[in-house]
Amino acid sequence: MNGVHDLGGMHGFGPIRPEPNEPVFHHDWERRVFGVMMAAFGGRQYNVDQFRRLCHRNRIERGR
Length: 64
Known about the structure:
64 residues, mainly alpha, 2 helices, extended
């Protein structure tokens, strides 16, 4: 497996070089989505496997 969603990601893109003084979130939507995800996972509404399955199912239903 060598897909973007596989553990470790895809190969061949070289090392990750963090930006100096990089912010935790680059955009406001990232902060909001992170909060929603933490609430869902922390509240035991979903586990990682269930969430991944939902993402893939929704992607297939939309034809992507």
